[in-house]
Recover the amino acids of this structure.
């Protein structure tokens, strides 16, 4: 980034300059040599401060270290490293100021944009050829993409009559992830209740998962599991054995509908839905052993995911951090696209900011016309974040 320098006279410097002008004017009018000498003595510190502030910032470098991951409402701690590259002369009373601005988007929540934050760190002294570390802390209460920088170093040393500012360092981007809450026992119970029929069908031994070997026949094994060729070779009955997966794949579909015109409670409901979806995904990745997917309509319907891992969670959380609410009815297209992309045995959780009736054939025409998708839609677990019942399943952090 191009280095920019600016030297300005401070208010105290203007006052001091006015005193010099009065003394010099009185000396000229009254022809008093002592006042003329006093004006010259006062002008010395004035010029000295002008030269000192320029030399004080010469050869400085500032580096910033951002955290790898931060959620909305968490403490943001940024380390600043000030390096004096000069071989001689240290730098005194250097203030490094940061600018943090949430980037504007094409979404519908731009009216909530906060003014730029300007944290600063004071470095009392940076010796020649050495570095000094500083840190500033704060909280970013909204999710989204933030632009940090450029950094500005300034000083008024030694007398505070002039201010010298240089702009250095390059801007960086920080994505603030959605705030996480806590899932209650009621949420786990509701999932088990919603998928009781599917679980009942899967309780038959040896009929789920991938085939990985055979074993000796035991009492209670069905005849259809007998592997006749292996039984003939072994001279005894053996049955096929299947590997049971540890967890069911899960797809979270997020419907961020927001009415027009929207009020503060609508915006709060959108953030609650995003937080709930992020908490569900974080809980699934913490348990592991399955594939997770996220379906959103951020411009166009899209469904992304992967194995439950920290890398997949980070990618999906960044996607949730940048998503914006919409006023159109894109849910039918999003839900149909998600059902076509995921596997047949995937559990689907629909998180919406409104009440959704999946049996409405007029609204979900594409799903109702397909028998396979219609059957899978009956087992979708719907969560309405605008309902008071959400407190039974989810507790957002204060």
């Amino acid at each position: 980034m191009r280095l920019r320098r600016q030297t300005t006279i401070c208010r105290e410097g203007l006052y001091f300059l006015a005193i010099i002008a009065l003394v010099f004017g009185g000396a000229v009018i009254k022809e008093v040599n002592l006042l003329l000498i006093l004006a010259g003595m006062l002008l010395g510190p004035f010029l000295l401060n002008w030269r000192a502030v320029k030399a004080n910032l010469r050869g400085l470098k500032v580096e910033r270290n951002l955290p790898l991951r931060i959620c909305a409402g968490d403490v943001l701690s940024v380390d600043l490293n000030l390096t004096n590259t000069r071989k001689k002369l240290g730098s005194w009373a250097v203030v490094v100021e940061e600018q943090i601005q949430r980037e504007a988007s094409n979404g519908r929540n731009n009216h909530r944009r906060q003014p730029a934050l300007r944290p600063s760190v004071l470095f009392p002294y940076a010796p020649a050829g050495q570095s000094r570390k500083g840190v500033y802390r704060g909280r970013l209460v909204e999710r989204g993409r933030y632009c940090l920088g450029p950094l500005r170093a300034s000083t008024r040393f030694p007398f505070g009559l002039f201010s010298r500012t240089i702009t250095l360092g390059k801007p960086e981007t920080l994505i603030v992830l959605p705030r996480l809450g806590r899932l209650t026992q009621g949420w786990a119970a509701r999932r088990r209740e919603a998928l009781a029929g599917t679980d009942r069908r899967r309780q038959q031994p040896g009929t789920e998962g991938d085939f990985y070997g055979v074993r000796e026949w035991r009492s209670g094994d069905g005849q259809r599991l007998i592997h006749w060729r292996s039984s003939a070779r072994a001279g005894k009955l053996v049955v096929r054995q299947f590997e049971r997966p540890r967890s069911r794949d899960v797809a979270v579909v997020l419907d961020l509908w927001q009415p027009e015109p929207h009020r503060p409670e609508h915006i709060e409901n959108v953030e609650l839905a995003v937080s709930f979806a992020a908490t569900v995904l974080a809980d699934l990745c913490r348990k592991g052993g399955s594939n997770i997917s996220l379906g959103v309509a951020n411009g166009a319907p899209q469904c992304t995911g992967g194995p439950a891992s920290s890398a997949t969670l980070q990618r999906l959380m960044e996607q949730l951090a940048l998503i914006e609410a919409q006023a159109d009815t894109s849910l039918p297209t999003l839900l149909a696209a998600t059902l076509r992309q995921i596997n047949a045995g995937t559990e689907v959780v629909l998180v919406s900011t409104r009440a959704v009736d999946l049996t409405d054939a007029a609204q979900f025409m594409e799903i109702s016309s397909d028998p396979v998708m219609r059957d899978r839609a009956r087992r979708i677990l719907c969560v309405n974040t605008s309902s008071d019942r959400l407190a039974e399943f989810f507790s957002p952090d204060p």
